[in-house]
Design goal:
alpha+beta, Alpha-Beta Plaits, 4-stranded antiparallel sheet, two-stranded antiparallel sheet, 6 strands, flat
Length: about 110
């Protein structure tokens, strides 16, 4: 089976609003949804991942602080790219935030040295 990384995406303004207005009962409900989703998909999850914080962009010219819409990740195994993507159709991330998306990328194998 191949590995895939899912990047949880959400508009920065939505993330900021959610953080500002988050209540304990909302966080508890959200964690329950995530626990249920993880249990449902545990046979495919290689690494649950985590929320992601601030971004630094590194170029040949230096390092700068950057904002982007990536807010978390998960690594899964699946028979195909489509099968990996389908795992995330029921993700709580899509229900939690307006404009949220999930990008699923295949983890390619490094070419063998000759």
């Amino acid at each position: 089976m191949k590995k895939y990384i899912a990047l949880y995406m959400a508009p920065i303004s939505v993330l900021e609003q959610m953080m500002k207005n988050s209540k304990a009962e909302d966080r508890e409900k959200g964690m329950k949804a995530w626990s249920d989703w993880m249990e449902e998909n545990k046979s495919s999850i290689v690494e649950m991942g985590a929320p992601l914080g601030k971004t630094k962009t590194v170029t040949a010219d230096g390092i700068t602080d950057t904002k982007n819409e990536v807010c978390g990740y998960t690594v899964v195994e699946a028979d195909s790219h489509d099968a990996a993507a389908k795992l995330f159709q029921s993700s709580p991330h899509l229900a939690d935030m307006q404009g949220a998306t999930i990008d699923v990328l295949e983890c390619m194998e490094m070419p063998a040295k000759e």
